Amino acid sequence: MALILFNKPFQVMCQFSAHPARQTLADYLDRPNFYPAGRLDADSEGLMLLTDDGALQHRISHPDHKAPKTYLVQVEGVPDAARLQQLCAPIDLGDFTTLPCDAMQVAAPEWLWPRDPPIRTRAATPTSWLSIVLSEGKNRQIRRMTAHVGLPTLRLVRIAIGPFSLEKNPLWPGESCDVSPDLIGAT
């Protein structure tokens, strides 16, 4: 049983099989029989866990285990207290209602790598950064949550899953490292 931390670059698909137009995990990792424990959409960046153990993969990614996932989110606009409170409360997104989460405005992270290509900028529209911690992770959930409260997501970077974080284990986009799967019990 092994566990890999991987910093997924922007526009890379979370699969090992070939994609007609984009890079995949196979372009960065040559580890047979490893599979992602959870996914990030192509427009999102950041921390992924991969393992060669099906039971561990299930334990990491299944919503019943609720390993907290922390995201840095650059949004268009500046949140006020009411919008932050809306983000923290359950939000009815039509096809599901989110669980409560932690959300707060944070300073622009100095340690974060630049995105390639850079996000769009508008001189008349300010941007800000949020830290959002979820115990679930449905398809495009954070993007839908921030749009729902009037703060469209410009950049989304997962920086932590349970005890693993890109701040503690600095990896540039496309880099990976092996870690002890024993740490999963700490989530």
Question: What's this entry about, in short?
Answer:
The protein has helices at 54-61, 81-88, 141-148; strands spanning 3-8, 35-36, 45-51, 69-76, 102-106, 127-134, 153-161, 164-165, 176-179. The chain has 187 residues and is of the alpha+beta class.
Features of the shown structure:
single chain, 187 residues, alpha+beta, Alpha-Beta Plaits, 27% strand
Describe this structure in words.
With 187 residues, this protein is α+β, with helices and mostly antiparallel strands. It folds into two domains: 1-65 and 163-181, Alpha-Beta Plaits, CATH 3.30.70; 68-161, Alpha-Beta Plaits (2-Layer Sandwich). It is 13% helix and 27% strand. The chain has three helices and nine strands. The protein has helices at residues 54-61, 81-88, 141-148, and strands at 3-8, 35-36, 45-51, 69-76, 102-106, 127-134, 153-161, 164-165, 176-179. Strands 1, 2, 3, 4, 5, 6, 7, 8 and 9 form a nine-stranded mixed sheet that branches. Strand 7 (153-161) and strand 8 form a beta hairpin. The longest helix is centred in the first third of the chain and has 8 residues, at 54-61. It is globular and about 45 Å long. The two termini are 18 Å apart. The model has no long low-confidence stretch (mean pLDDT 91).
Helix and strand layout, with pairings?
Layout: E1 3-8, E2 35-36, E3 45-51, H1 54-61, E4 69-76, H2 81-88, E5 102-106, E6 127-134, H3 141-148, E7 153-161, E8 164-165, E9 176-179
Parallel strand pairs: 3-7
Antiparallel strand pairs: 1-3, 1-9, 2-3, 4-6, 4-7, 5-6, 7-8
